[in-house]
Structure formats: structure tokens, C-alpha cells
Amino acid sequence: MTDMIVSLPPVSEMMRDAGLEPKKQFGQNFLFDLNLTGRIARSVPDIKNTTVIEVGPGPAGLTRALLMAGAKKVIAIEKDKTTQPILSQIVDASNGRLSVIYGDALDVDFSSLDIKEYALCSNLPYNVGTELLIQWLHIVAQNKTPKIKSMTLMFQREVADRIVANVGDKQYGRLSVLTALVADAKILFGVPNTAFVPQPKVQSAVVQIIPNYDKIKKLGDISRVENLTAKLFSSRRKMIRGILRDIDWNLFGLTGTERAENLYPEKFLEIAKKVLI
Fold it and tell me: How confident is the model at residue 138 (pLDDT cuts 50, 70, 90)?
């Protein structure tokens, strides 16, 4: 099944033939390292029984790795239509396992896809990675169909640290709280900037986020938590009573002298359910 994928020319050669260059406006930093793309693809849980959605495949280095790792199906979402000459060759070699949607992933209605569940696996464009993650956390929180089984995603290391941070950590913030309330997250491994073309100034890391539907049952509207965290972490060094002045913090077992970084995700949820921001 993977023989036709293996026989394709190297990614760099296909890029040269297509006249494709990374585009700064799309936040593109391409991966050519087969060992690295293979390691990312093999990290997707139960990949052989899973439809994988990849955002920003570019010249399809990770796409090829997902197919070679045995993904049941891959749906690639690509904004840059100049990648079409390359992606069309991968589609032809995929034995029907790859389809491509050309458009902005932020605008794609995932609920319209004819699948019951899917995993996300992407080397996310730096300029939209956080926005996409928040959108996907909302999908998880709403328990929408098709369901997200897992997310195996590349972020800037700074963003990755924020996603997995615990209360009291200097990286702890809005992303930490929102992720912790709907999922279990961990950093799988770091990725040096030398692995990318062009080489970015920052380091990266692969984060795995597994939705926790037991947590979601207790959640309610994640938008209220998102609004609360945005408000409190916007002035993270201030005491919470100095940011939201009209709240009786005693009702939540607090004095009001705490800072946002001192509040556990469950406390944000408790407050958000009773306080409209």
C-alpha cells in the first residue's frame, strides 16, 4: 500500500520541480527530515484505524509519513494553492487514502466531513497555531461529531510550554487552563530549528493532546472560561480583586488577593459558571 509513496521523488526534488518556495505570509517552515516526520506520524495513537486531518501540508513531507505509517485516511487542508502540483502527485500515489481541501483551516467546517472521528496531526503554521488550537478545544468541549480522538501538533517551544504548564509555572496561562479543562496534554519531544527550511529563530516541540470526555461532562460553556482567563491573565501580576472588583471572592473560597497564576483550572471553571464576563 505504501510502495507508490516510497517510490516518489524526495520532497526537496518535488519542490524544485514545482518551483515551490516557503511563503512567509503563510508562516511556512517545511520539514524534510524523514526520521523526524516518521517519528511524528508514528506518534498518532491507533493511526492504522484512524482518519488523520493535517493542516498546512505544504510539500507533503509529513503527509507522506502519515501515509507510510499506515493512516486509514489523510485529509490535508492547505491554504497555499501553489502546492497543488506536489499534493496532486501524492494523491495519485495514495491509493485513495489522501484527499486535499484547498482553503483556510480556520474556515473549514469540520462537522461537515463524512467521518465519525479523526485525529489531528500537523506541523502548524506559526502564525495561526494558537488560534487553531483554541478552535479545536472548543470542538472538543462541545463534544461535536465527528469527534477529535487526538491531536499531535508541532508548536513553537514557547507555545508548547504554555499548553502543558501547571498552576504556578511562569508559562501558566489561558492556553494551559483551556487545555487542562478538556484534555490531557504532554510534550512528546523537542525539535531544533535546524530541522526546518527556512530555519526559524525559535525552537519547536511536538505536543500530544488527548481529549478527556470525563472532564468535558463537567464543563458547560468553555467560552465563559475563555473570557475569564483572557481578563485575568491580561494583568497577571495584579490581584484578581483589582481586575474584577464587583465579585465576592469569598463565595469561591478566595480572598481576592490571589493572582491568575495561582488559580487551578477547576477554579476558573467554578468562577466562570457563576460570573458573567
Answer: very high
- d(Cα 151, Cα 149) in Å, to the nearest integer? 7
Contact call for residues 57 and 83 (beta carbons, < 8 A): yes
> Mean pLDDT across the chain, nearest whole number?
92
Asked if residues 98 and 62 have their Cβ atoms less than 8 Å apart, the reply is no
CA distance readout (Å), 15 to 29, 61, 82, 210, 264: 13, 11, 10, 34, 47
Bridge partner residues of 31 (DSSP): 196
Residue 71 corresponds to which cell in the numbers above?
493512516
DSSP-H helix ranges across 7-60: 11-18, 34-42
Instruction: Give the DSSP H/E element, type plus range, for residue 206.
Output: strand 204-211
Q: Which residue has the higher pLDDT, 243 or 31?
A: 243
Cell 502519515 maps to which residue?
Answer: 66
117: phi then psi, degrees, rounded to nearest 5: -160, 165
How many angstroms separate the CA atoms of 273 and 243, rounded? 18
